[in-house]
Amino acid sequence: MGSTLRCDSFDATELSQDAFLGGRLVIGQPKDGYRAGVDPVLLAASIPARAGERVLDLGCGGGVAGLCLAARVPGVLVTGLEVQPAYADLARRNAEANNLALDVVTGDLSNMPDTLRQQQFDHVIANPPYFDRRKSTAARDMGRERAMGEGLALADWVRAAARRVAQKGSVTFIQRADRLPDLMAAAMVHLGSLEVLPLIPRRGRVARLVLLRGRKGGRAGFRLHDGWLLHEGPEHVQGGEKYTAATSEVLRNAAALPFPV
């Protein structure tokens, strides 16, 4: 099925060097394979972490979400779990290149490595594969397919996150809006104080992505927040991004994207 992923690491010639957070981070990403966009940046910006707190990024890929969080919150302790050895190695290299601490564990969340089973985290974050392959076509590149095509059910991601988060700690997912019913169903079993922040592409459009947060042992009622607007204007303008001022602050200047209080 298309190209195969190197089992150990990417050669430098296979990578592009891409700027995130207005150039604060320069991240190596495969030219062919899974490439992070704004989604992990938005996820990282939404986490209410403080210096000294511990964060676990499930399925960290090349490390974009964890490194964006580490850049925004100096002193936060970030660990990433990644099943694909080449991407785990890339995350370590990206952390070193940006002089940021990111402890990356190679392993599968369905069979959590012992080093992680023995730990609890203040926050767990995840950007799980978006596409249910019973209803969509697999990507040709194996690395991209592992990142985008659902191999494990969303319920397994939620269960793994809930096991690793400390009591009263937060679990936050970014996911396609059409997968929210599946994600909510699983979250209601393992987490409380659920809240959803829709990410609206443009005013008058339906949300394509959502952020869902829950807390272990939380007892507050469900909250559906007003949507976060990503782009200005009614339609895409050729050659321009036209993010809202608030979104630009998140993407360019490492600002927080807080859930409304």
Automatic annotation (TrEMBL):
Residues covered by the Methyltransferase small domain: 42-136
InterPro entries attached to this UniProt entry: DNA_methylase_N6_adenine_CS, SAM-dependent_MTases_sf, Small_mtfrase_dom, tRNA_Adenine-N(6)_MTase
GO biological process: methylation
Database matches in PANTHER family: TRNA1(VAL) (ADENINE(37)-N6)-METHYLTRANSFERASE (PTHR47739)
CDD domains per record: AdoMet_MTases
GO molecular function terms attached to this record: N-methyltransferase activity; nucleic acid binding; S-adenosylmethionine-dependent methyltransferase activity
Protein name, UniProt field: tRNA1(Val) A37 N6-methylase TrmN6
Signal sequence, start to end: none
Organism of provenance: Roseovarius lutimaris
